[in-house]
Amino acid sequence: EPVDSDGEGEAPLQLRPSRTAAWVDEDDELEEETSAFLTRETGDKLFSCSTELWPLLLFVFQMKKCLHANSARPSEDRLTTVQFHPSAQVVMTAGLDQSVSLFQVDGKTNPKIQSIHLERFPVHKAQFSLDGEMVIATSLKNKMFYLYDMMEGRITPVHTVRGLNEARVKDFSVCPEGGALLLNGTNGYLHLLTLKTQEVVRSMKINGNVTGVAFSNDGSKVFTNSEEGEVYVWDMRSSRCVNRFTDDGCVKGTSIAASRNGQYLACGSQSGVVNVYSQEACLNSANPKPLKAVMNLLTSATSLTFNPSSEILAIASRAEDEAVRLVHLPSLTVFSNFPIAKRKVVYRASCLDFSPHSGFFSLANNKGHAPLFRLLHYRDF
Q: Using CB atoms within 10 A of its CB, is residue 301 exposed (0-12), middle (13-18) or buried (19+)?
């Protein structure tokens, strides 16, 4: 049975809403120096988030390394998940040590809120529901998955999903419309599961195996890529494939991500190349050409994520230490100073995320840590 690793029972969780963060007013010397530099370079537009700022920064991104997001409770094994809460100043980590943990993010001490232990359940992936009130957690070899209702402090194992003919539930995506998950099945299947009735309502199939899923911002379309290097575009309402194309130069697809503003689609490959496309071209063209082929990763591109303002694309490979890069999207240029440390800090990253207004960036690594960076260009959490 799952237990609260703090031994205090599964008490209802009180999530403090995200706000203009207090840490903005508690800056140390490093930030003061950086802010002074930014003010000199950009004048009154400091923290305006306008893309007009970027050329003036010469592609050196101003950031500060903070205490690890999960410093109050490091994982005893590889972390597989880091995710910021959609509306509270909270971050979640989960990993192979069979735990899911929540931390308040202040950039200083990042105190632990709660940690739950799931017996014999190394967590492969954990995600907040769309409303942020629930956590969905899957494992490596289980058909069962867990639902953790944070408001009521209730952990529910889901043993059976009606209409699901799969040996395990491992990779999934939370649908933007809420109340549903898209499960990655075997042999190219994608299954749409409703959380309310816990049943599969429909399935879609591609050729080969699914290696990545990304929703359009309104949830009406879903992009999937395959081991064969093809990208499929599905209409979620009709379950029809509305477009299909070959990812340029790709032999084996490994990851995919879509920007929230509907402008970009990024496709990662086993070679490490990340192609950035116009999302509109991917919806309408049978042979779209990349706006940019990002070639800074030398091993398989396993993680891709856009920041909420669609100005930055974070890319990573879990096959090599420090293999994380940040791409400035308006210019499609890689920032030259990340990773920023002279010594290893990132190690091997398996998951990346930005806070709701891009004030923080974090990643899950193989050392059980979630390194946390404050992005000084963005004022709010």
A: buried
Distance CA 77, CA 333 (A): 34
Query: Does residue 381 lie in a domain region?
Result: no
- Residue 338 falls inside a structural domain: yes
pLDDT digits (tens, 9 = 90+) for 30-40: 443 333 333 33
**Residue 44: domain span:** 3-375
What is the strand order of the sheet 333-334 is part of? 303-306, 312-316, 324-328, 333-334
Question: Running DSSP on this structure, what letter comes out for residue 38?
Answer: H
Q: Does residue 97 lie within any of the structural domains?
A: yes
Confidence of residue 16 (pLDDT cuts 50, 70, 90): low
Number of domains forming the structure of the chain: 1
Q: What is the CATH number of the domain that holds 370?
A: 2.130.10.10
pLDDT at 340: 77
* Closest among 45, 19, 46 to 32, alpha carbons compared: 46
How many Å from the N-terminal Cα to the C-terminal Cα in the chain?
Answer: 35
Residues 234, 221: contact at Cβ < 8 Å? yes
What's the pTM value of the predicted model, to 2 decimals? 0.88
In this structure, the strands spanning 123-128 and 79-84 are unpaired
φ and ψ at residue 369, rounded to 5 degrees: -115, 160
Query: 380 lies in a domain?
Result: no
Segment 108-157, tens digit of pLDDT: 999 999 999 999 999 999 999 999 999 999 999 999 999 999 999 999 99
